[in-house]
Write a structure and sequence with these properties.
With about 200 residues, the chain is mostly helical. Helix content is about 60%, strand content about 0%. The chain has 8 helices and 2 strands, in the order E-E-H-H-H-H-H-H-H-H. The chain has a two-stranded antiparallel sheet with strand order 1-2. A hairpin with a 6-residue loop joins strand 1 and strand 2. Helix 3 packs antiparallel against helix 4, helix 5 crosses helix 8 and helix 7 runs antiparallel to helix 8. The chain is elongated. The termini are far apart.
């Protein structure tokens, strides 16, 4: 065809057009393996690094769990064995290398349920710690209170039921603890602590 102007036939076009610029790259390329659907977005290098670090950190959290709790988690056999081996290693460098291996194995598991299980365990530990602290506070209040103030404290105690069914037992434990000789082993004080703890756990 005639080329009176600066136009020429472009191999990427089906008509005469100006060819001073290359064609714009298509936003979506045809993917034979996905039947022409949009290919999944690829993670950037920084995103992959963050994901890898998160899995490493999660693997490190798993190594802190007691070995007898690992069987309850959705772990692959290889990861379970690697965690058990980590618990048996005493050498610092050996532990470091095993932790790296655990991080690689973490790529083969569904991290979501594992993260949820660890979070639930942490929440349970925090609740236990708070309960221990509250138990100690109540024991000290009851032991240091004047005799005339004990009834008011018992009335304010967070009983697990409206009837305060555990009050007679707690009053007995308290009376024994208050008269216990401080120069002797604090058996009665410990019994009072356990009694308060049981009541708080029933709430």
């Amino acid at each position: 065809p005639s080329t009176a102007s600066s136009r020429r036939w472009c191999w990427w076009a089906s008509s005469w057009e100006w060819c001073s610029k290359m064609p714009r790259k298509k936003q979506y390329q045809w993917d034979v393996e996905t039947n022409g659907q949009e290919a999944p977005e690829q993670l950037s290098r920084s995103a992959k690094k963050r994901q890898s670090t998160a899995l490493q950190d999660l693997g490190a959290e798993l190594t802190k769990l007691p070995v007898n709790e690992l069987d309850r988690l959705p772990l692959t056999p290889d990861l379970l064995e690697a965690l058990r081996l980590y618990a048996r290693i005493s050498n610092r460098e050996g532990k470091r290398r095993q932790l790296q291996f655990i991080g690689r194995l973490m790529r083969e598991v569904d991290a979501g349920p594992l993260a949820e299980a660890i979070e639930a365990r942490k929440n349970g530990q925090q609740a236990d710690a708070a309960r221990l602290h509250l138990t100690e506070q109540w024991r000290e209040k009851l032991l240091s209170a004047a005799e005339t103030d004990v009834d008011d404290l018992l009335a304010a105690f967070p009983w697990p039921d409206a009837e305060a069914a555990g009050r007679p037992e707690l009053e007995k434990l308290l009376a024994e603890a208050r008269k216990e000789d401080e120069r002797r082993p604090p058996h009665a004080r410990r019994a009072l602590f356990r009694g308060i703890m049981r009541l708080l756990e029933q709430r």
